[in-house]
Amino acid sequence: MARMTAPPAIVILGVGAVATARRVQKVFEGATIHGLQGRIPAADADVAYTELSAHLRGLYASGTPVVALCAAGIVIRCVAPLLSNKGVEPPVLAVAEDGSAVVPLLGGLSGANAMAREIGAALDVPPAITTSGELRFGACVLNPPDGYALASIDQGKRFVSDLLAGEATRIEGDAPWLDGVQLPRANDARRTIRVTPLAWSGATDELVIHPRSVVAAIDETATGDGLPERLLDAMRARGLAEQSLAVLLAPASRTGDPVLHDAAQALQVALRFTADSDAGNNAAQMLRASLHVPHTPFDAHANASVAFAAAHAPLDPATVGRARGKLSVIGLGPGAASLMAPAARAALTQATDILGYETYVNMAGPFRADQRVHGTDNREEMQRARHAFELASAGRHVAMVSSGDPGVFAMAAAVLEALDEAQAQTHYAAWSAVELEIVPGVSAAFATAAQAGAPLGHDFCVLSLSDNLKPWSVIETRLRHAAEADLVMAFYNPISRARPWQLDKALDIVRDFRAPSTVVVLGRDIGRPGATLKTTTLADLKSADVDMRTMVIIGSSATRAFCAAGGREWVYTPRWYG
Ligand code: SAH
Questions:
Q1: What is the maximum alpha-carbon separation in the chain?
Q2: Closest residue CA from atom 9 of ligand 1
Q3: Does the CB atom of residue 404 touch ligand 1 within 6 A?
Q4: 444 CA closest ligand 1 atom index
Q5: Which residues are in the Tetrapyrrole methylase domain (predicted)?
Q6: Apex CA 64: angle with CA 63 and CA 68, to 5°?
Q7: N or C: which end of the chain has fewer CB within 10 A?
Q8: How confident is the model over 338-379, as pLDDT tens digits?
């Protein structure tokens, strides 16, 4: 039985429920308010639905906990057609619109009563709990906390009935959550609550609860199709319960092996790796080297390709060996948080280490105290890229930040070059095993173009005017060809204190091919505080109007500017070409 940890959907029908819904929302992190379209203003709901009954059934079927702020009867009628399998139902609660009653209806085994108590506490009303075991003992014995799983829900129900009928129980193993529970206990009781990673024997006088505490170590040779099944068989052969499995541990040399990823996913366990390849490549040795809490080995043979060990309590996978490292090369967009891709935001949240040029790292923050920021460690791009791989190949989650898009005059190419260059080196395998992702961003040319209208509406090119990393002669040739081809041109790095004359030189070349009336857009600090946008012409453009925080877009012969009624100026390049 899985414990319901997904955040609930708070479903409301009328505006009278909004205030209570907000109070309930505060109780559960990530909870969303679902409002009936047409009746609940969009600002008061996170999700709009059109038909209550279909919506509730959809939530129920997807296993989402439901808190419906309406009559219990309505909720029951809506989900009734789906009520057949009591084992997998999510919590469903009815709460009075005015917050005066909290009724857990379904999902007593997946936390409905616990939710009812939490909501009751927030609304200051006693929850209407009707589950007899829960009422008698003050907690649901069949709903152990995260990190534990019940061996059999049917046996659990039988066991609780026995207790309600007057039987006493003893507890074997560690069940700290039962400490405060009013169970009838006796040391010589015939009934036993057993907390153990060992499989339930089927005996009807015990309630077996498995801590997720087992680590399965596999060596180089354990691979191929059917690995999850073989692991489970090996667990059964050692008397271990499959619900106890918490971590799959593999040698560092197998980091990135897709077979392992698939297996861990199929088994729904964490995948971890030994810290370095000489930790011992025999499965039993790997466990000894990587498991840092007291544990019991379950090795069938010292040289088996699979070995198991059980910790004495649920295991935090983060304490076993290390993770496969990850390197996310992300673009922040031009600056505004709203223009950063959610995938980039997610990579920043997950990162243990953040690298990048200091200005951008500051833009990406603030960071949590547990995140390491390497803003100034390496000024040079290739060094920074190598540093990122060193951290990631040691199991860290690294976010490498660039502004705009990471692939446009930014870190993504440097990161790939660092990896490519490492081919002949001993760390190549480890660097290649890093989970590498490039997350795109809104590049400065696009952010500026959107502010101005659509100057990049037809063929265009982007050029960096910096001659730090390429000879000036190449820039001149490209400018000439691009100008002659009548492409719209977006200039990155147009000027800097160290490169004062290059922009004027570039404009001279462009002026040889384009009319003085050619439309030019200058965007400075677009998406950042103090942003400015200016439209001018090639004749009037002066390098003094441009600095290193400016994007210069030179129109083609077709690019035009006009003022809409009201005075707003728009620039665009039509889709056709005449
Ligand atoms: N990877 C970045 C570009 C880095 S090169 C991107 O995709 O946007 C740096 C140049 O980009 C600057 O010299 C400037 O020309 C331009 N630039 C970056 N951010 C900008 C912004 N917010 N507004 C205008 N131009 C910007």
A1: 100
A2: 493
A3: yes
A4: 8
A5: 326-541
A6: 130
A7: C
A8: 999 999 999 999 999 999 998 889 889 899 999 999 977 666
Query: Terminus-to-terminus CA distance in the chain, angstroms?
Result: 68
- CA angle, corner 44, sides to 79 and 20, nearest 5? 65
452 lines ligand 1 (CB under 6 A): no
Does 409 contact ligand 1 (Cβ within 6 A)? yes
Tell me the CATH number at 317. Answer: 3.30.420
Question: If you count them, how many residues does the chain have?
Answer: 578
Regarding the beta carbon of 410 and ligand 1, being less than 6 Å apart is answered yes
Does 316 lie in the same domain as 239?
yes
Residue 383 sits in the same domain as residue 466 = no
Q: Does the CA dihedral 234-235-238-239 come out positive or negative?
A: negative
Tokens coding 385: 């890229």
- CB of 527 within 6 A of ligand 1: the answer is yes
**pTM for this entry:** 0.74
The rounded distance, in Å, linking the Cα atoms of 318 and 348 is 19
Q: Is 334 in the pocket of ligand 1 (CB under 6 A)?
A: yes
Residue nearest to atom 26 of ligand 1 (CA): 444
The CB of 462 under 6 Å from ligand 1? The reply is no
Lowest mean pLDDT segment, chosen from 132-141, 177-186, 227-236, 559-568:
132-141
The tokens of 561 are what? 């500017």
Report if residue 143 sits inside a domain: no
In a domain, 142, yes or no: no
The alpha-helical segments, DSSP class H, found in 268-318 are 283-290
Separation of CA 549 and ligand 1 centre (Å): 6
**Which of helix, strand or coil describes residue 299?**
coil
Q: Which of 549, 552, 553 is the best mutation target for the ligand 1 pocket, counting ligand atoms within 8 Å of the beta carbon and taking the most?
A: 549
What's the gap in Å between 403 CA and the centre of ligand 1? Answer: 7
Q: Are residues 464 and 523 in the same domain?
A: yes
Q: Is 85 exposed, middle or buried (0-12, 13-18, 19+ CB in 10 A)?
A: exposed
Q: How many domains does the chain have?
A: 5
**CA 492 / ligand 1 centre spacing (Å):** 6
Q: Is 414 in the same domain as 461?
A: no
- Residue 396 domain-assigned? yes
Two structure tokens written together for 85: 């399998």
Of 294, 322, 350, at which residue does a domain stop?
322
Provide the pLDDT confidence category of residue 4 given band limits of 50, 70 and 90: very low
Cβ of 466 closer than 6 Å to ligand 1, yes or no, is: no
Q: Is the pLDDT of residue 87 over 60?
A: no
451 CA from centroid of ligand 1 (Å): 14
Instruction: State how far the Cα of 226 lies from the Cα of 231, in Å rounded to an integer.
Output: 9
For ligand 1, the distance from its centroid to the CA atom of residue 444, given in whole angstroms, is: 5
* 403, 426: one domain: yes
Q: What would the pLDDT profile of 114-145 be if each residue is shown by its tens digit?
A: 899 999 999 999 999 888 777 777 777 788 88
| Residue 99 belongs to domain with CATH number | 3.40.50.11220
